[in-house]
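The aim of this short unit is practical: by the end, you should be able to scan a pair of folded records and say something sensible about each. We start with the first protein, listed as its amino acid sequence and then its structure tokens.
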Amino acid sequence: MSNAEDPLKPEDPYPRVKALRDTMRAEGVPDSVPIVMAGGVWFLREWDNWIDNPELGSIAFQFGTRPLLTEESPIPQAWKDHLRTLEPGDVLLHRFSPTGFYSSAVKNPFLRKLEDRSERQIPYSKVQAGEHTVQLDVGVRGKNFWVAPRDLERARGWVAAGYTDGLRTPDDTIVFVAPGERAEIQQDQKDCMGCLSHCGFSSWKDHDDYTTGRLADPRSFCIQKTLQDIAHGGPIDENLMFAGHAAYRFKQDPFYSNNFTPSVKQLVDRILTGD
């Protein structure tokens, strides 16, 4: 899906892929060039009407989640074990990634902290305008932040609860965080290693003047830090843990019963049967 689409309004993929193939044909692209169906693929038998279908031409299927739970998979054992416990809805499609794209990850305290942080957010103006009629008197220095009266009361409530520090975002909002959280965000931004060509979290880019020109976004996170940590055995509750939305099927699929972990070959052989 593109960033312009609403994830809460999913569409049937078949007509969309058919329209894509029609466009490719109109531009002279041969049917031998496959369209890759990526996301939500578990059993090939569930996509039987896509295979050898003259309307769609060549179709390939990407398996991103099932290979996580294989003998050769390098992810930590705690990650593998947790995948077996997931229920429907335990994977969140979110926009916290510094890449700016939608990303799927297991709901855990790490993601919940990001969700809570964005909930503690109010819009502001640098001048009195519209509904921004009162000055923000908590969380920020100076008197140049104008907010709506109801948002001022919300901000005061967050400060009373210990979220005393306000951080500006590139969308003209202020998020309220605890002092320790602010220190961690700022340290992570200082430690930026430049792993992305454009990073929403650090305002760094890898060319021209080396800056995105936008304010670093405190609602995001350092993706390099968390992926390095979880990949090397860091706590699964304190890091981003990738998984597709069909990961709950590990618990339902009899192939994985009795804690069976297949080799990659065993998994591919199984997939080719339709299961």
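Turning to the second protein, read its sequence before its tokens, just as you did above.
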Amino acid sequence: MHMALDEMLLEEVIAGARPPTMRLWRWIECALVIGSHQSVANEVDLVAAHKYGFVITRRMSGGGTMLCEPNRTITYSMYLPESLVSGVSFRKSYALLDAWAVAAFNRMDVPAAYREINDIISPRGKIAGAAQARRRGNVLHHTTIAHTMDVELIPRLIRIGRASVAERGVRSAEKSVSPLSWFTELSCDEVAARLLAYFMGAFDAREKPLTSPEVSAARRLVASKYSAPQWINRLP
């Protein structure tokens, strides 16, 4: 459903039905989210995923596999018209669109900084990773933040460093992870609330709930695409 909401809200912005929008969201189940150009066979240890209760889904954006858990992971998505990234290179747009989050983490006394092309980091490793998709110049930019994580679980679930099984598919990079909980006593809920408050203050934003037609449109995308094995397991 989250993958479908991302596509639907991007289309809303493209159509002019919504202004530039940020959605801050949480997970209700454990998930391994692979990038649009990845292969499930290359990326996921299916035996381990079943053992630890992780579902597998594919997003519309590129990048590597994200490990997401309830009450441990925060994600924000931004749906933006082309004008907001005009004159900025694809590479530089990542840092531009995540700069507010780095500033919000710094305000929480988390020693966060940016590492090109798409990571928010601490001196001990990666805190968050971003991915993008573009349609007709408009941008979906989303960033997944590890608040709490068993870092030893990553190589068990994601086949980082193992031999490729499929011939095609972008492989995830091997990077050290440093969850926010290593640097702050704030809970996952408290961090999410502070991120939202910082964003709303920085950009003079206002809350606009999802409408019933929007939710219905996303549910149709779930049924037709994002829950379909042919989408999840497709070869890039």
